[in-house]
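Lab notebook, design round three. We kept the backbone fixed and only want residue identities now. Task for the bench partner: fill in a sequence for the structure below.
Input structure tokens:
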């Protein structure tokens, strides 16, 4: 099984960290293909960067997705996820999409640990978009810029643990989700300090992608996720243009 791990950020180091976590979560025989966007934000962190990330994600998967059994859109905001689902025949999952649904399977309500308050607002919108607002216990920020968290993630462990505990003790979370590509690999470092399951996107998305490949859902030929045909676009890469 070949899973494309598509990072719409331009930080190859973040891709490397996620690839390591993805390989650790993968079953024997599953190969991870990590790729990084060639344009866009180093670390997506604003609404303007998010729009660029949507296009970067679609372009990246169009170029790199051939022959893959599943695709993981490897960014916290699930950049362009619905469009990539429409484009591809194979299962497509987003990091946050996978983590939120996994959290619903281990508890009643979940809390989100985010890097900044601005990220928290976007996450509430995403949770609502996935129809899971009734399961959201709370969103708490560690107050660290994503780029700084990426540079020194282990330096933030105390603050991450304190924030996760607040979600459990004050907000009633039955599970805690660490939001962001930079959180890959951190749950095992925090789990002994937090009394509920601690999850993050990469470790959830890989086994869920494997399961979706085995389920083998049919590609929609009607509705909003059916591929477009005979459309004309200009100014985009050849691989993406061919998908229309």
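Proposed sequence:
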């Amino acid at each position: 099984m070949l899973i494309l791990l598509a990072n719409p950020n331009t930080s190859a180091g973040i891709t490397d960290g996620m690839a390591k976590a993805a390989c650790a979560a993968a079953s024997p025989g599953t190969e991870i293909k990590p790729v990084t966007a060639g344009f866009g934000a180093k670390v997506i962190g604003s609404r303007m960067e998010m729009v660029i990330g949507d296009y970067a994600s679609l372009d990246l998967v169009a170029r790199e997705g051939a022959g893959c059994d599943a695709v993981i859109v490897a960014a916290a905001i699930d950049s362009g996820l619905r469009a990539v689902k429409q484009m591809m025949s194979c299962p497509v999952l987003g990091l946050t999409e996978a983590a939120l649904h996994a959290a619903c399977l281990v508890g009643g309500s979940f809390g989100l640990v985010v890097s900044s308050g601005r990220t928290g607002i976007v996450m509430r919108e995403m949770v609502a978009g996935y129809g899971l607002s009734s399961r959201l216990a709370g969103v708490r920020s560690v107050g660290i810029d994503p780029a700084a968290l990426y540079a020194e993630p282990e330096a933030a462990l105390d603050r991450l643990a304190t924030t996760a505990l607040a979600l459990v003790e004050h907000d009633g979370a039955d599970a805690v989700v660490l939001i962001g590509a930079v959180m890959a690999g951190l749950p095992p470092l925090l789990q002994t300090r937090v009394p509920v399951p601690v999850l993050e996107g990469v470790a959830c998305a890989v086994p869920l992608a494997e399961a979706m490949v085995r389920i083998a859902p049919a590609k929609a030929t009607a509705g909003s996720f059916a591929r477009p045909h005979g459309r004309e676009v200009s100014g985009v890469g050849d691989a993406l243009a061919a998908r229309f």
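Keep this in mind before ordering anything: The first helix runs from residue 12 to 25.
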